[in-house]
Description:
single chain; globular; Helicase ATP-binding domain-containing protein
Amino acid sequence: xxxxxxxxxxxxxxxxxxxxxxxxxxxxxxxxxxxxxxxxxxxxxxxxxxxxxxxxxxxxxxxx
Length: 64
């Protein structure tokens, strides 16, 4: 069985800004997936997702 992940390091980042999220590139999708798993652990972290296409429901449903 794999060892559990270590505790997140101390950090000062308060915001993550993702621009052009509607383009659905592999790096953007991976970042969104990592953030989805990390956000419950880092309640003070704010994520700003910007997109030229205002399909907010896609992101609201994903992060729901």
